[in-house]
């Protein structure tokens, strides 16, 4: 890679050439293990979350459509983004520019899709709480349009990043675009939740807000707040990488950048935890799925013992299992 290409890598990935060259082999392995553990947890937690959403009545609620989309985006982070990141971390200088562009493209698509989806979630909560009568008449098509828009927005920004890598767009110009594409959805999200707070705590527009809507809005606000706290430090670090090359090559800042990237990816496993703590139906179904095999095997064992005992007394306490 040329020096210019290496500088471009600095702006969007903690696996920058400058950063990795300052890491020892043991440090690379340590970071790789940390990111690998996060990837495994992200895949497992979001797979379980998707299963719960699809196997319960939650899937019938329009508000769940956006959460399913967010779960898919988070799961793909574990399947695609983190493994590619680990590969680039461990094989610094040995991967092609094509691989780097593939990594950058999907990383930006998933990131922008997530932040855009959260903005749509906030807007949906605003509409459901402040205009409940109109919200009840909303067709599922509206949610599918929001989902498609979130992915399309992510793809457009990712394409601009590839064009930047090819030298067709100036790096600083793209940085401004990237900052705007992140800041705008976050600003919309904050405004929407502030409006929801006013509606639920000052004077409801259409009478008393149902407790279910209040709790769901609070849950989604918690998810959004955690997202902002854990997700934004890495883009901020990238801004410093872009505009301060001396700082970007400082070993302490390199460690900080990797830590923010780990936190950045770690956000993808937070949502299932919040769902479990805040949504009763989700928690019950998740518990049932996790312990299903264990409970089934224990029940069968119990039934066998009971059949043996009851056969001696001439009665069966539980029916024989049909093969």
From TrEMBL:
<dbReference type="InterPro" id="IPR000276">
    <property type="entry name" value="GPCR_Rhodpsn"/>
</dbReference>
<feature type="transmembrane region" description="Helical">
    <location>
        <begin position="66"/>
        <end position="90"/>
    </location>
</feature>
<keyword id="KW-0807">Transducer</keyword>
<feature type="transmembrane region" description="Helical">
    <location>
        <begin position="102"/>
        <end position="123"/>
    </location>
</feature>
<feature type="transmembrane region" description="Helical">
    <location>
        <begin position="219"/>
        <end position="240"/>
    </location>
</feature>
<dbReference type="InterPro" id="IPR017452">
    <property type="entry name" value="GPCR_Rhodpsn_7TM"/>
</dbReference>
<keyword id="KW-0675">Receptor</keyword>
<dbReference type="GO" id="GO:0004930">
    <property type="term" value="F:G protein-coupled receptor activity"/>
</dbReference>
<dbReference type="GO" id="GO:0005886">
    <property type="term" value="C:plasma membrane"/>
</dbReference>
<dbReference type="Pfam" id="PF00001">
    <property type="entry name" value="7tm_1"/>
</dbReference>
<protein>
    <submittedName>
        <fullName>Trace amine-associated receptor 1-like</fullName>
    </submittedName>
</protein>
<feature type="transmembrane region" description="Helical">
    <location>
        <begin position="29"/>
        <end position="54"/>
    </location>
</feature>
<keyword id="KW-0297">G-protein coupled receptor</keyword>
<keyword id="KW-0812">Transmembrane</keyword>
<feature type="transmembrane region" description="Helical">
    <location>
        <begin position="144"/>
        <end position="164"/>
    </location>
</feature>
<keyword id="KW-0472">Membrane</keyword>
<comment type="similarity">
    <text>Belongs to the G-protein coupled receptor 1 family.</text>
</comment>
<keyword id="KW-0325">Glycoprotein</keyword>
<keyword id="KW-1003">Cell membrane</keyword>
<feature type="domain" description="G-protein coupled receptors family 1 profile">
    <location>
        <begin position="45"/>
        <end position="275"/>
    </location>
</feature>
<keyword id="KW-1133">Transmembrane helix</keyword>
<feature type="transmembrane region" description="Helical">
    <location>
        <begin position="176"/>
        <end position="198"/>
    </location>
</feature>
């Amino acid at each position: 890679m040329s020096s210019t290409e290496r500088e471009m890598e600095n702006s969007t990935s903690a696996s920058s050439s400058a950063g990795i060259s300052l890491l020892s082999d043991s440090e690379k392995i340590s970071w790789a293990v940390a990111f690998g553990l996060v990837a495994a947890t992200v895949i497992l937690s979001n797979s379980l979350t998707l299963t719960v959403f699809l196997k319960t009545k939650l899937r019938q609620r329009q508000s769940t459509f956006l959460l399913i989309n967010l779960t898919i985006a988070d799961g793909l982070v574990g399947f695609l983004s983190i493994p590619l990141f680990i590969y680039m971390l461990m094989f610094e200088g040995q991967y092609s520019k094509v691989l780097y562009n593939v990594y950058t493209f999907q990383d930006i698509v998933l990131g922008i899709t997530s932040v855009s989806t959260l903005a749509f979630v906030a807007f949906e909560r605003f509409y459901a709480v402040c205009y409940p009568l109109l919200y009840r008449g909303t067709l599922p098509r509206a949610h599918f349009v929001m989902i498609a828009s979130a992915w399309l927005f992510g793809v457009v920004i990712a394409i601009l990043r590839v064009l930047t890598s090819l030298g067709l767009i100036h790096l600083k110009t793209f940085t401004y675009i990237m900052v705007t594409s992140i800041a705008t959805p976050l600003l919309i999200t904050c405004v929407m939740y502030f409006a929801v707070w006013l509606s639920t705590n000052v004077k409801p527009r259409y009478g008393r807000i149902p407790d279910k809507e209040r709790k769901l809005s609070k849950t989604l606000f918690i998810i959004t707040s955690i997202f902002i706290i854990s997700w934004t430090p890495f883009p901020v670090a990238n801004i410093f990488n872009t505009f301060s090359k001396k700082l970007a090559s400082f070993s302490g800042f390199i460690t900080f950048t990797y830590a923010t990237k780990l936190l950045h990816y770690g956000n993808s496993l937070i949502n299932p935890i919040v769902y479990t703590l805040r949504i009763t139906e989700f928690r019950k179904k998740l518990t049932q799925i996790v312990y299903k095999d264990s409970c089934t095997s224990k029940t069968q064992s119990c039934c066998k013992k009971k059949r043996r005992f009851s056969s001696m007394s001439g009665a069966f306490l539980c029916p024989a299992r049909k093969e």
